[in-house]
């Protein structure tokens, strides 16, 4: 039997890994039979709106998920986190998943860390969120983007100690071609799944089919491969 050269064996392993990655991204996981899944809260970013998630909401609905796209009161992350809390309480939601875009990831994380109370957050997924801030925001008012300044008291408190506390499973999806949020700011230093994609812009993270598959896998407790 002819033995493969070392180079051939390496190439075969790379090919096998690529096939596995493609198989993961070619299908969207379905909820387990009989499983009761929590509703998904969709949290928009700076000056965004619930309609930003129209495409993703349809896809999640087709995959059997109950979806709520929230309207946030403004650009103050703490006030937005209070609004998320009020929505969950008003709708008697005891357990939720969260998918957030851009600054919405910070509003959501403030809710998870400081305001959730008895509300359980199973999965947190951020899309292009500046978890550690953006330098260009440091001259903005605190309630209009200034909280995103890397040296702000808001971020210091949010990221102090473990930035992924509790039993929530955290995923941060970001792109090297985001165009607005650098990958270094999208990290979470705790036990998060970090997905570094390429070839997709900041706004495109909301609609890209490949990103949606990653979101779906993350909401099922898996850490999918990156693309690009």
Overview in brief:
The protein has 6 helices and 6 strands, in the order αβαβαβαβαββα.
Can you describe this structure?
With 228 residues, the chain is an alpha/beta fold. The chain has one domain: Alpha/Beta hydrolase fold, catalytic domain (Rossmann fold, 3-Layer(aba) Sandwich), CATH 3.40.50. It contains six helices and six strands; from the N terminus they run αβαβαβαβαββα. Strand 1 (40-43), helix 2 (54-62) and strand 2 (67-69) form a beta-alpha-beta unit. Helix 3 (77-90) crosses helix 4 (104-115).
* Uncertain residue segments: 8-26
Largest sheet: 6 strands, parallel
How would the global form be characterised? globular
The pLDDT mean sits at: 90
Question: What key attributes describe this structure?
Answer:
single chain, 228 residues, Rossmann fold, 32% helix, globular
Ordered list of secondary-structure elements with their pairings:
Elements (H helix, E strand, L loop, with lengths): L5 H20 L14 E4 L10 H9 L4 E3 L7 H14 L4 E7 L2 H12 L4 E8 L25 H6 L10 E7 L17 E5 L11 H11 L9
Parallel strand pairs: 1-2, 1-3, 3-4, 4-5, 5-6
């Amino acid at each position: 039997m002819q033995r493969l050269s070392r180079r051939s064996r390496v190439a075969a392993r790379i090919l096998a890994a690529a096939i596995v990655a493609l198989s993961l991204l070619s299908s969207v996981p379905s909820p387990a039979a009989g499983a009761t899944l929590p509703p998904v809260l969709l949290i928009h970013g700076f000056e965004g709106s619930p309609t930003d998630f129209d495409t993703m909401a349809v896809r999640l609905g087709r995959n059997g998920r109950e979806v709520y796209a929230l309207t946030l009161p403004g650009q103050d992350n703490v006030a937005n986190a209070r609004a998320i809390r009020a929505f969950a309480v008003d709708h008697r939601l005891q357990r939720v998943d969260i998918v957030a875009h851009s600054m919405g990831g910070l509003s959501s994380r403030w809710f998870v860390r400081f305001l959730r109370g008895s509300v359980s957050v199973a999965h947190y997924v951020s899309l292009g969120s500046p978890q550690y801030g953006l330098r260009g925001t440091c001259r903005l008012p605190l309630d209009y983007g200034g909280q995103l300044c890397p040296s702000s008291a808001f971020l210091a408190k949010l990221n102090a100690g473990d930035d992924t506390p509790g039993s929530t499973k955290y995923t941060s999806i970001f792109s090297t071609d985001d165009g607005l949020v650098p990958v270094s700011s999208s990290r979470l230093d705790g036990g998060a799944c970090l997905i570094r994609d390429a070839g997709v812009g900041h706004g495109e993270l909301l609609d890209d089919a490949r990103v949606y598959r990653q979101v779906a896998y993350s909401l099922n407790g898996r850490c999918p491969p990156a693309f690009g």
